Amino acid sequence: MIFILVVTFNRKELLLQCLQALSAQTQQPSKILIVDNASTDGTIETLQQNGWLEQPNIQLIALKENTGGAGGFATGMQYAFEQGADYVWMMDDDAMPHPTALEEIMQHATPEHIYGSLAVNRQDTAWATTLLAANKTVHLKNQIPELAEVQSLPFLGFLTSKEIYQNIGLPDDSYFIAADDTEYCMRAQRAGHKVFICGRSQIEHPKSERYESHILGKKINYLNLVPWKRYYDTRNRLLIAKKYYGFKLYTQTIPSLIFRLIIALRSEKNRLKQLKAFFAGFYDGVFCNTGKRHDKWGL
């Protein structure tokens, strides 16, 4: 059985578009799970009014508090596999899968490895994709092979199996948002599973505001982020580095975070809040203060 898992928060119009795209898939899933992260914009009422919750293959999991993307995916994944799913195909509410996206990815799927659809924005990839065999980062969708091993995948068209769930467990919900997908891929790879992208399985998605910057001869991939997201980006990069990188935490991760702060102070609008977000994230990353915490810092 294949379950599709969609996590949503306060984006009811995008969610409706996502569900329309899922209902048009050439290969239909056994069930579509919608995890609502305590939306306050009338998401559940909108689903009811539009008849989505009356469909037998659609199920809503309504959380009482916002657990972030990490918590939503962990909750939905656990429920799906406990209900007998063999595979779970996961995405956010702003995903617009092409009609053949699920069919294409299932042509390659095996229970031993993780597979991902390609997030695209017209002719571009929605974010930079690093192909391991070629050892290069690509930005155009026609540069992505039908199947290629990659470093990591986002939780957007992310296909994992019951076997992997039984082996490594759930995404780490303490991350709240940001890098929970990266950590899950690294944990899977450490356990012997590979991560593949499927170039013909495509999902339309907004393009990330990312660019390369060069500081002291080093190339930094920089992502434009509002301050409260900067907090999680900083904290969770440190959490991953402490868990997986060893001494590279000091030689690579911390210097790259400082470079990102310099770029943010040079290019972002609200510099003081960016600075506060960085130091708050750095502090909580060092002392492993996890969960939803940006509001505690006034971000």
Poorly predicted tracts of residues: none
Largest sheet: 11 strands, mixed
What integer value in Å does the Rg equal?
19 Å
H/E element sequence: EHEHEHEEHEEEEEHHEEEHHH
CATH architecture of the largest domain: Alpha-Beta Complex
Number of helices: 9
Shape field: globular
Gap from first CA to last CA: 42 Å
What is shown here, in short?
This protein is 37% helix and 25% strand. It is an alpha/beta fold.
Could you walk me through the main structural features you see in this protein, from its secondary elements to its overall organization?
The protein has 299 residues and is an alpha/beta fold. The chain has two domains: 2-204, Spore Coat Polysaccharide Biosynthesis Protein SpsA, Chain A (Alpha-Beta Complex), CATH 3.90.550; 210-297, no CATH class. The protein has helices at 12-23, 43-49, 68-82, 101-106, 162-168, 180-190, 227-244, 248-267, 271-286, and strands at 2-8, 31-36, 58-62, 87-92, 96-97, 114-121, 124-131, 136-140, 148-149, 158-161, 195-204, 210-215, 218-223. Strands 1, 2, 3, 4, 5, 6, 7, 8, 9, 10 and 11 form an eleven-stranded mixed beta sheet that branches. It has a two-stranded antiparallel sheet with strand order 12-13. The protein is globular, with a radius of gyration of 19 Å. The model has no long low-confidence stretch (mean pLDDT 93).
